[in-house]
Write a structure and sequence with these properties.
Layout: H1 3-20, H2 28-42, H3 50-65, H4 69-75, E1 79-85, E2 90-94, E3 97-100, H5 108-121, E4 132-136, E5 142-146, E6 156-160, H6 169-175, H7 180-191, E7 196-200, H8 206-214, E8 223-227, E9 240-244, H9 258-265, E10 272-275, H10 282-290, E11 298-302, H11 306-320, H12 326-336, E12 339-345, E13 351-363, E14 366-377, E15 383-385, E16 391-393, E17 402-404, E18 410-411
Parallel strand pairs: 7-11, 7-12, 8-9, 8-10, 10-11
Antiparallel strand pairs: 1-2, 1-6, 2-3, 4-5, 5-6, 12-13, 13-14, 14-15, 14-18, 16-17
Helix pairs in contact: 1-3, 2-3, 3-4, 9-10, 10-12, 11-12
């Protein structure tokens, strides 16, 4: 049975099930068993490999109770991202490479039904009035939806999959994303309650790294996490509160933003505040939280380098507090942020920690940065350490210790 014949047979079985099975009166397990029986009955006298029979049953079941074509893609752990540009264009990222699948959805209506099912599971809604939605799957995978007429090619669905097992620093060392020496220093920074910002481009592994870094938080602390869509997988912390934003409803009310959640979290006796991603006016609230005794906060943001992250923070603060003098903003940033870690995706598709920079202070209108650790990529996509190793010193500034290396300080 070739692909076209298989899809035709799947459609035939789905129609038979819809007409002969009371779907609203049967549970998932019984439905799965019933579909198996129906498939066997319709294949009597025909040759069909066991693997194809199983695939047919799963496709029929998924189209009724699951996410259809998406189910088989999501189950494949080697796939890290799914990009659907309308019902006929399905792309995946597998082992760092983009591929187009030869599979497609039956129709645009079917794809829209699956999107509504995904969005509904997280208590969100997406429609023509609100055609853009960020949500998540039950396993924590990040989902972005854009509907027509905004998306001209049809319903657009992007899924960033996350590993079923939380990421650890040990795994990052094993993957070559970070060295053991740097990991040990980062552990000291987290335990010493340094405020750490993780920067990087799309797909550079910021959330994954934040997950791993959070494992260094002492288990007896109270941690508040704030995200657009809950993705963080913090293990071992019992006193953990996870907060998630909410979009406005159809009447335009009920919206809860990251700014609202940060303000609320300050009244929840947090010892650490972790903001999944800062991308707008909430930056001013995050900086104020860091400056009001909530040391040890962690967050991420999009930027091209650690220096660029400072500029991005200035811009984001202005979005939330227009008219605030640039000098006051820079003083806030210099006082709040201690360490910026920059991640990058290299030409060989690997993800590396390429910069660690210390925010030393503020002087004569400039934020003073001290590059602690820098890598450069050669033509063979191998990394070379060019700045030396991290060393503890007795130079006490904000916390119990400061880090520095030999090298020239950078000013912006």
């Amino acid at each position: 049975m070739n692909f076209e014949q298989e899809q035709s047979f799947v459609l035939k079985i789905k129609q038979y099930v819809a007409e002969n099975v009371l779907l609203n009166q049967i549970n998932d397990d019984d439905l799965h068993q019933k579909i198996e029986e129906i498939v066997e009955q319709h294949l009597v006298g025909q040759y069909c490999p066991i693997e194809q029979r199983v695939s047919i049953v799963e496709q029929v079941y998924s189209s009724i109770r699951g996410f259809g074509l998406l189910d088989s893609i999501i189950k494949d752990d080697s796939i890290t991202e799914v990009m659907i540009n309308g019902p006929e264009n399905v792309f995946i990222e597998q082992n760092g490479h983009l591929l187009k699948l030869d599979k497609k959805f039956e129709s645009q209506r079917k794809l829209e039904d699956i999107i509504q099912r995904i969005v509904g599971l997280a208590g969100r809604e997406v429609n023509q009035a609100n055609p853009i939605c960020d949500t998540r799957l039950p396993d924590g995978s990040r989902v972005n939806v854009v509907l027509p007429p905004i998306a001209l090619c049809g319903p657009t669905l992007t899924i960033r999959k996350f590993s079923k097992t939380p990421m650890t620093i040990e795994k990052l060392i094993e993957y070559g994303s970070i060295s053991k020496e740097i990991a040990e220093k980062l552990q000291l920074l987290v335990r010493a309650k340094y405020n750490i910002f993780i920067s990087g481009g799309t797909g550079s592994g910021k959330t994954t790294f934040l997950n791993a870094l959070s494992n260094y938080i002492p288990k007896d602390e109270r941690v508040i996490t704030i995200e657009d869509s809950a993705e963080l997988q913090i293990e071992g912390v019992e006193n953990l509160v996870s907060l998630e934003t909410r979009n406005a409803n159809a009447s335009g009310s009920g919206q809860i933003t990251i700014r609202d959640l940060i303000k609320s979290s300050l009244r929840m006796r947090p010892e650490r505040i972790i903001v999944g991603e800062v991308r707008g006016g909430e930056a001013i609230d995050m900086l104020q939280a860091m400056n009001t005794g909530h040391d040890g906060s962690l967050s991420t943001g999009h930027a091209n380098s650690t220096v660029d992250m400072i500029s991005r923070l200035e811009t984001m603060v202005l979005q939330g507090a227009a008219g605030l003098p640039l000098e006051a903003i820079r003083q806030q940033i210099a006082s709040a942020v201690d360490i910026i870690i920059h991640l990058s995706r290299l030409r060989d598709k690997s993800r590396k920690t390429v910069e660690i920079t210390e925010v030393v202070g503020y002087k004569q209108g400039k934020i003073i940065l001290n590059p602690l650790f820098v890598f450069e990529e050669d033509e063979n996509s191998t990394l070379h350490k060019v700045s030396g190793s991290l060393k503890r010193t007795s130079n006490k500034m904000k916390k119990n210790f400061k880090l520095q290396i030999s090298g020239v300080k950078a000013e912006i």
